[in-house]
């Protein structure tokens, strides 16, 4: 094969990548270029408005987010993949409606996805390198690197450009065949692979075409009104940000709206009509662990720090730290039923050596002991 036949060889490689990603457990892949165009303008505007809150690393690594060549020299393509994570027989909506239960975002119920997906992408990279070694016509020094969420890569824009779906009004990537319950990952490479033909996505047209239409369900359901407009999220008001990213005290105005959401929030996804097409994951590692999909707030709040570390080993929850874990659970208990059990649980940790935890426990006890709160809870129970 001559150098003029290289495009055909790269086309063959792209086809192989499609097969390999399926073998590695990914449900879909697409190949796009590294140019972000208008996505960079949106990021600049979002940061200028301060919507990122305390997530200063987004601004610190802004240039890398906007230019993958700063992460992988001579980068040309991004291989974007998605992997479903919806647990089978999940009772999350039921849990959300039970005030004494702890609601943990679906993505965090099983093992941490970062290592799993990064390892699969590393295996994909090895397969690509082996293919290139077997074809001497490819003389390029291969340079590629896998990314999964934690690195400065704009994964949703790349996923949209690669044809994996469209960014919905709730700023989450949506797919018209599986909704939004999936993780994203990227393999950035310097290989000049052919771009995915977006007119042939699963034989159903361009899956990156926005199909939200006039629906605004996700915007209306948000408990803290975090969406300032369609496609614009003020993270400072988002429960996922408040419970996971915010390091200090949670503003009082958001505490009652948080309800029993102690790690993340899925409301905008739970109500999305496209998620009726979601399929349960086949990855056992994403199945709920330690009954975290259906457990009492008091049980989690009464964990010792050693138990917290034990039960969150290998989980995305571990990065929260025990102090913020107690902070979030205290708010959940403050929004729960005013039972003696809930009050006793809160009082048992009043001496915990953290002013922030003590502040949230005091708030929760005040909530539970409020006559107005008690009446409201009784009324809700009778509905």
Structural write-up:
By secondary structure, the protein is an alpha+beta fold. Helix content is 40%, strand content 10%. Helix 1 (6-23) runs antiparallel to helix 6 and helix 14 (322-334) packs parallel to helix 16 (355-368). The N and C termini lie far apart (74 Å).
Query: What string gives the helices and strands in order?
Result: HEHHHEHEHEHEEEHEEHHEHHHHHHH
Number of strands: 10
Poorly predicted spans:
374-383
Q: How much helix, percentage-wise, in residues?
A: 40-55%
Gap between N and C termini: 74 Å
Overview features:
disordered C terminus, 17 helices, four-stranded antiparallel beta sheet, 383 residues, alpha+beta, single chain, two-stranded parallel ribbon
Overview in brief:
The protein has 383 residues and is an alpha+beta fold. It has 17 helices and ten strands. The protein has helices at 6-23, 38-48, 56-60, 62-66, 92-96, 113-134, 155-161, 217-221, 239-245, 252-258, 267-270, 297-301, 305-311, 322-334, 340-347, 355-368, 371-382; strands at residues 28-33, 77-84, 103-104, 144-147, 166-167, 173-174, 182-189, 227-229, 232-233, 261-263.
Task: Give the SSE layout.
Blueprint: H1 6-23, E1 28-33, H2 38-48, H3 56-60, H4 62-66, E2 77-84, H5 92-96, E3 103-104, H6 113-134, E4 144-147, H7 155-161, E5 166-167, E6 173-174, E7 182-189, H8 217-221, E8 227-229, E9 232-233, H9 239-245, H10 252-258, E10 261-263, H11 267-270, H12 297-301, H13 305-311, H14 322-334, H15 340-347, H16 355-368, H17 371-382
Parallel strand pairs: 3-10
Antiparallel strand pairs: 1-2, 2-7, 4-7, 5-6, 8-9
Helix pairs in contact: 1-6, 14-16
